[in-house]
């Protein structure tokens, strides 16, 4: 029996494929071999001595060579700031939430074979590897209790008592509801982007985020109450679109991350074009020279400063931190930090008769979207005790089913609602501390009154008993936006229609702060769509 060169060739290829390593790594075990298609038999014969295994009656071959790879210390590859400071990047992304993750993914997808270098810095640390709801030990109450822990998130400012910031890889997408409606045309028709182009990017965002309208499929609770709403004056009501992957595991592909988070953007990007990622790396200043970006100043937990070089920077730090970085960088712009918006938020609690709903009861997942005439949005969820049922959580049978409405109202975009800094008041990183000025206008208050009356009408339409309505503290919606909004006029906007800061070449914004307005609609899908568009613009301008 003879061993053919072709057999050795195939064996090495198999070893490389199984272990997900290039065949050139196997060749590196013998530095005299440089071509994977030449002298493979010689390479086998010159491997370090190993015990033999008998094949057949009279032929023996060496054992497969050991696979030696560098150790991975974390669940995602990390790079030190010292190493990043030695490199020069084509783009640096600041922040890893929905906007930063989407921009990174798109750049890596478009530049997969272009030899580009991307750096990413995240102010927070590694917290969760997936959305919190995907973890079996979590349920709705535990998720909220974990998020509100001061070790995980922190208040923003007294002016927004309900708002909190989360510093962690993946940002607030580790905890979001995954509700992903598109902004209505009545809200976006004045934006500096055509509806056709925006819809195209919505489609890309919905595809990559696994947005589905079938999250509640087969649920009698949703079907019955939705039919009642549509038949009694609320025809615009529908199943809420959610970024959840309902595909089962198949063809060897493991499906466990049902709820989408930016961690999936990071994973998809990593497998297209490896990037350098540093956590606990707080970007404090964008460095510019003659109106052009030259890099970012980053501070470590030890308060050591690093300068990361790049001629393009994407700020995705959130609607509070992005303008804060810009203001600390001396970037001029009349609108930077201004026009801070969020949603007014009400919680309505109601009870439905359990006998009205056949099995399976399922979940409640109804959205009544904002319209031009009704500047508010209703999300009906339930049953008690949470929005999502975990695999080990048994829902007790009660004669009444408790349901809840999260009601978001449009807030006027006013110049006086703002994020600002006082240079003399600095934090431990040497940055001016975040300051916020915010209040509801009389128009906002009138919308809140209308939201309350509409909730009563919807309860009657659904034939449920409305138990209570209460208003949440300002900022509790976590939909803060518009502090670096895009537009054509530098006097009323911070960026142009592609998210580039007016008058600064190479400096972009790709988070909620870039939204021209926020209406009453969940902003994440729109932020992702615009971030992908900004990444496409960078790629096209770099050709």
UniProtKB/TrEMBL annotation:
<dbReference type="InterPro" id="IPR051473">
    <property type="entry name" value="P2Ox-like"/>
</dbReference>
<keyword id="KW-0560">Oxidoreductase</keyword>
<protein>
    <submittedName>
        <fullName>GMC family oxidoreductase</fullName>
    </submittedName>
</protein>
<feature type="domain" description="Glucose-methanol-choline oxidoreductase C-terminal">
    <location>
        <begin position="426"/>
        <end position="531"/>
    </location>
</feature>
<comment type="similarity">
    <text>Belongs to the GMC oxidoreductase family.</text>
</comment>
<dbReference type="InterPro" id="IPR000172">
    <property type="entry name" value="GMC_OxRdtase_N"/>
</dbReference>
<keyword id="KW-0285">Flavoprotein</keyword>
<dbReference type="Pfam" id="PF00732">
    <property type="entry name" value="GMC_oxred_N"/>
</dbReference>
<dbReference type="GO" id="GO:0016614">
    <property type="term" value="F:oxidoreductase activity, acting on CH-OH group of donors"/>
</dbReference>
<dbReference type="InterPro" id="IPR036188">
    <property type="entry name" value="FAD/NAD-bd_sf"/>
</dbReference>
<dbReference type="GO" id="GO:0050660">
    <property type="term" value="F:flavin adenine dinucleotide binding"/>
</dbReference>
<keyword id="KW-0274">FAD</keyword>
<dbReference type="Pfam" id="PF05199">
    <property type="entry name" value="GMC_oxred_C"/>
</dbReference>
<feature type="domain" description="Glucose-methanol-choline oxidoreductase N-terminal">
    <location>
        <begin position="170"/>
        <end position="343"/>
    </location>
</feature>
<dbReference type="InterPro" id="IPR007867">
    <property type="entry name" value="GMC_OxRtase_C"/>
</dbReference>
